[in-house]
């Protein structure tokens, strides 16, 4: 293992020698930047940080592309606006292939490959210079075709930039004497650096940055790492750390098939767990190919919860496949299987007209042709065509009449939307957003008018990269990771299935890539094997391989040639026949018998014992206990006291950021600020603290006419113009820097003839005001109301409270001034259910009602809080549930007022309130709290006792 720092006195001299995250965390400054190899590593670092340094903020953890963008935006805040996604780059590349007019596209060229070449500092001209036409190896015989496509791609891209350009642009910026604020940065657990990244780090060092490079552990000699170290040391860097490391010897299990491998592994997990090894201390490493992911998901129902989700893409959505099938039969080049696939589509009912296409294929003897119009011509030529077939063809012609054979992206999207309406299918949010985004490509990517088939192909390519939402992973599960996601992590048991020739190492050698980048596939294979080995350094390492895959004989990997596969483990699943394993227990949490005792993974531990806390965490606990009350903290304690401890004392409740899009918290804060400034602008005055009732009533904002008050509101379009200007002003004040800011903004603003989220929110707010034709007329008056004082929660308890109320509407009923308290949510799904409110599981409505009433009382304003509710803003243009409003208190069909119901709620959560003030954090979850809890893995690793004062 090698560690390199930019100077002999670097703060990273100890950190670069760490073998694990636990060893690394004590030596990382909290104000540093850590560039991580995989976003999966972010949560692992945060958890370790919380255990060791709970009293300090976590350093900034970013992937390398995000680090590039952050640097670029230090020189120009708007510099990232032209960044395109990999899907957009693929579309431009396909057009570039057509531009070259080659007889066939060069095999294997992709947008991601070109991006990788550019990250190695390559250009078409340089590659051509390196490999003169008269002196090229045979495997570069098609290099001219590759370079012509590459050049056409760059011409198509114009001033836009892909991730490869992003890296180059940062280096050029730094080379122009731009001085970014000096920081401390650690590149963590890398096997090598691209040429551009190496140059980037060198430039940062020269501009005063303290840079550390932590190279991942490697089996044998790493040519990539060695080359990097030699180059850096030659340029004056400090060789901070070198330590010997010996890969663990694996237990090799030969199975009959991949299915047998998976059954043995799942059985072994049960046995190891029965021996006292927590599920979260075990890991399965997925190979890059093979059927293992599907097999694990299929067999995991037999009592082993896995941290694995089936990856589903939008191309599998039934609505998308139906549209695609209709289009395939509508355009030139359709085949008989296309027709049969369409006729059998599950979204078409048994009596749907298109079902008749199956018979039409046979009757008309059609096997391919020019599209729907040709079907009509064939039908006219045969007078004996029955009514069933005739109806099917007429329906097909009618559906496809919305298309033009040549048109813009906007025309294609409009036609697809009309087709969906004609077929009476509701598009998923992901499919609809992909269409909206594709429509924007006319201007964004400069797409020319294209054929229907080309549009269909490009949209489908984009759709193939859009993931559909999956259910959250069950908490406390066995880890399922890829090789590069294992770096710097250790597990007590590591299972690696599918270690055969063809998967690891890969048989296919990409000589083109190796020639241009200088990186051999063999080196990449060894690095993957090293990542797997290091995760099992301190534990049991089990490798399995199948004697046959899909009926064809397999050969175990060359990495296992010197390892005996007859070693006995004492684990029945690994040593005996898989048929004898107990794999029929269909419980989410397995009940396992073994090692002379029973272990139920659903069992609860006793909780936290204060004596187990470090001094730093104990100090943090004292601060937490004294903090004012907030609904989030109280709800967490109600859900499970141990979850409260993990969230507020250990600080583990952090979202898994992707570095690609704005976080939900930031999106919510942005929309709150936009809404506040919009209403303040409409009424003409900022929000102030009212001293009298008259002042309070004058603060109401009207966006619809009010005859009684003599108010004429601006039109929707005038208001929309104000709202968009406010959005742009507010957006400048919020941190940008996400890889795909432009995509996020395209959903908020109107694009390609469809309304954005902002317009839908404004139309909803205007419609809500228009409903109130006569008293009581409520209008928004107060925004972002802070309350930091004490509140009488019930008849006996007074608590300090610190919260911010998003909005308060004011109205008059029978001469009495009333208030309605609103909290903004992004989507309907985040609004608490009625049951959770009445049971005391969600205390925000009750606490907001109490705090709002106390706010008015403290100021001597005769205002009574009448209701508390939620208003959604929405975050996508396809979801029809948002925006909406919902009253939380008082509960519907109840004669009890909101304030009285709030008092009852706090009477139900006295125990939780006591724990917040005095400590004690047992594992006592309410129903369903453990299913997807971020802390469940930890609470099952150790068993702590409850602290009692």
Q: In words, what does this structure look like?
A:
With about 950 residues, the chain is an alpha/beta fold. The protein contains 37 helices and 25 strands. Helix 13 crosses helix 17 and helix 34 crosses helix 35. The longest helix is centred in the C-terminal third of the chain and has 20 residues.
Using the alpha-carbon principal axes, give the shape: globular
C-alpha Rg (nearest Å): 31 Å
Strand order of the largest sheet: 3-2-4-5-1-6
Characterize the quaternary organization of these chains.
single chain
Please give the largest β-sheet. 6 strands, mixed
β-sheet strand percentage: 5-15%
Low-confidence stretches: 578-609, 940-949
Number of helices: 37
Number of strands: 25
Q: How much helix is in the residues?
A: 40-55%
Mean pLDDT figure: 83
Coarse structural class: alpha/beta
Q: How far do the termini sit from each other? A: 48 Å
What labels would you give this structure?
14% strand, single chain, 949 residues, globular, alpha/beta, 6-stranded mixed sheet, 42% helix
């Amino acid at each position: 293992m090698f560690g390199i720092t930019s100077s002999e006195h670097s703060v990273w001299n100890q950190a670069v020698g760490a073998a694990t995250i636990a060893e690394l965390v004590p030596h990382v400054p909290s104000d540093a930047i850590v560039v991580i190899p995989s976003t999966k590593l972010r949560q692992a670092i945060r958890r370790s940080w919380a255990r060791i340094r709970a009293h300090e903020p976590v350093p900034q953890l970013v992937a390398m592309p995000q680090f590039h963008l952050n640097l670029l935006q230090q020189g120009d805040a708007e510099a990232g606006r032209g960044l395109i996604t990999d899907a957009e780059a693929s579309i431009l590349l396909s057009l570039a292939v057509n531009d070259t007019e080659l007889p066939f596209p060069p095999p294997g060229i992709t947008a991601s490959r070109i991006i990788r070449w550019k990250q190695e500092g390559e250009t078409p001209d340089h590659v051509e210079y390196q490999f003169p036409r008269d002196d090229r190896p045979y495997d570069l015989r098609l290099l001219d075709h590759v370079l012509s496509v590459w050049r056409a791609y760059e011409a198509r891209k114009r001033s836009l930039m892909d991730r490869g350009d992003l890296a180059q642009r940062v280096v050029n910026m730094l080379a122009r004497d731009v001085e970014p604020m000096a920081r401390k940065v650690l590149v963590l657990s890398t096997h090598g650096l691209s040429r551009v990244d190496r140059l980037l780090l060198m430039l940062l060092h020269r501009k005063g940055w303290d840079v550390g490079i932590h190279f991942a552990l490697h089996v044998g000699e790493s040519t990539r790492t060695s080359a990097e170290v030699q180059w850096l040391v030659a340029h004056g860097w400090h060789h901070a750390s070198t330590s010997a490391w010996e890969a663990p010897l694996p237990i090799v299990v030969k199975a009959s098939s991949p299915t047998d491998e998976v059954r043995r592994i799942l059985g072994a997990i049960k046995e190891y767990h029965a021996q006292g090894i927590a599920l979260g201390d075990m890991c399965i490493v997925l190979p890059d190919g093979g059927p293992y992911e599907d097999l694990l998901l299929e067999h995991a129902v037999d009592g082993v919860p896995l941290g694995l989700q089936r990856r589903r893409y939008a191309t599998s959505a039934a609505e998308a496949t139906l549209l695609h099938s209709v289009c395939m039969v509508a355009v030139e080049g359709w085949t008989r299987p296309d027709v049969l696939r369409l006729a059998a589509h599950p979204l078409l009912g048994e009596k749907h007209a298109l079902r008749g296409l199956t018979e039409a294929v046979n009757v008309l003897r059609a096997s391919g042709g020019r599209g729907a119009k040709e079907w009509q011509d064939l039908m006219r030529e045969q007078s004996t065509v029955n009514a069933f077939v005739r109806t099917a063809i007429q329906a097909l012609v009618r559906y496809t009449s919305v298309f033009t054979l040549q048109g813009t992206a906007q025309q294609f999207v409009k036609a697809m939307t009309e087709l969906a309406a004609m077929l009476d299918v509701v598009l998923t949010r992901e499919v609809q957003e992909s269409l909206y985004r594709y429509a924007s490509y006319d201007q964004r990517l400069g797409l020319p008018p294209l054929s229907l088939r080309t549009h269909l192909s490009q949209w489908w390519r984009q759709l193939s990269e859009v993931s559909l939402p999956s259910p959250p992973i069950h908490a406390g599960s066995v880890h399922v990771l890829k090789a590069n996601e294992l770096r710097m992590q250790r597990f007590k048991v590591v299972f690696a299935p599918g270690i055969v020739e063809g998967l690891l190492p890969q048989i296919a050698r990409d000589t083109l890539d190796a020639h241009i980048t200088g990186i051999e596939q063999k080196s990449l294979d060894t690095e993957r094997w090293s990542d797997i080995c290091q995760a099992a350094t301190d534990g049991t390492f089990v490798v399995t391989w199948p004697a046959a895959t899909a009926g064809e004989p397999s050969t175990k990997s060359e990495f296992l040639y010197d390892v005996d596969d007859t070693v006995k483990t004492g684990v029945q699943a690994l040593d005996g026949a898989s048929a004898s394993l107990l794999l029929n227990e269909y419980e989410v949490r397995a009940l396992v018998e073994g090692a002379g005792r029973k272990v139920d993974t659903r069992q609860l531990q006793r909780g936290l014992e204060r004596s187990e806390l470090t001094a730093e965490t104990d100090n943090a606990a004292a601060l937490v206990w004294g903090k004012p009350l907030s609904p989030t903290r109280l709800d967490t304690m109600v859900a499970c006291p141990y979850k409260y401890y993990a969230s507020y004392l250990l600080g583990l409740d952090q979202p898994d950021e992707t570095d690609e899009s704005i976080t939900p918290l930031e999106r919510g804060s942005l929309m709150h600020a936009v809404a506040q400034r919009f209403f303040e602008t409409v009424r003409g005055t900022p929000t102030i603290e009212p001293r009298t009732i008259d002042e309070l009533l004058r603060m109401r904002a009207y966006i619809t006419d009010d005859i009684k008050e003599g108010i004429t509101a601006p039109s929707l379009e005038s208001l929309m113009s104000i709202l968009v200007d406010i959005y742009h002003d507010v957006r400048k004040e919020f941190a940008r820097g996400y890889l795909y800011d432009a995509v996020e903004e395209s959903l908020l603003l109107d694009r390609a003839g469809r309304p954005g989220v902002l317009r839908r929110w404004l139309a909803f707010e205007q419609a809500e005001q228009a409903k109130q034709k006569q008293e009581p007329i409520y209008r928004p008056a107060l925004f972002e109301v802070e309350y930091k004082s004490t509140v009488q929660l019930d008849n006996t308890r007074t608590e300090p409270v610190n919260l911010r109320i998003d909005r308060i509407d004011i109205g008059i009923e029978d001469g009495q001034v009333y208030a309605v308290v609103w909290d903004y949510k992004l989507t309907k799904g985040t609004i608490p259910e009625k049951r959770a409110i009445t049971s005391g599981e969600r205390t925000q409505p009750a606490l907001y009602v109490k705090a709002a009433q106390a706010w008015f009382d403290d100021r001597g304003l005769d205002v009574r809080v009448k209701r508390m509710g939620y208003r959604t803003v929405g975050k996508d243009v396809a979801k029809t549930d948002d925006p909406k409003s919902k009253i939380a208190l008082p509960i519907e069909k109840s004669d009890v007022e909101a304030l009285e119901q709030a008092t009852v709620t706090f009477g139900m959560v006295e125990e939780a309130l006591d724990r917040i003030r005095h400590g004690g954090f047992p594992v006592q979850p309410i129903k369903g709290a453990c299913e997807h809890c971020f802390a469940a893995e930890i609470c099952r690793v150790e068993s702590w006792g409850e602290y009692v004062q």
